[in-house]
Amino acid sequence: MQASDIAHVIQLAVAPVFLLSGIGALLSVLSARVGRIVDRSRQIEEKHVVTGENLDPEVRCEIDMLSRRTRVAYWAISLCTACALLICTLIVILFVGAFLSLDVSSAIAILFIAAMAALIIGLYFFLHEIYLATASLRFRRRSRVNSDKNRTARVHPLRTEQSGPANGAGSESGLPHPEKVPKT
User: What are the protein's UniProt keywords (predicted)?
Assistant: First the structure.
């Protein structure tokens, strides 16, 4: 094998190597997300173990969502890692084929298609994990707003959502608005 042949094989291997660097960055992002999920799970666990509370449904729902996100992120990491392994195998077969003067084009094509399929499915799981994370944020914000409304309704019984806006009219209970009571 001549130096020009080796240079040509290296040129062919450059594109998969760039793909490997992109997959490495993606794996870094995914592992950071899993780390944050684990940290949040531990934080919830420590809070409720120390207080000895039974888990209320909201906390149980958050723990279930974190568990689901972990499973989805695990599949994304597994598939992206499989993609990286397939790309590495492709590069090895490319060099072995060049050194042994074998026709490895069909093996390379199959490996590349399998790698891209694994990457596509891994990216789908990554997108699904992001969807779950944003859905849980909306759920927590909505539940927090509802608990704030319930707390406000207990503090201000005359100014509930049923009594309408504070426009100076009496409430539905028939009592006058506190600001419109005549001074004597």
Answer: Membrane, Transmembrane, Transmembrane helix
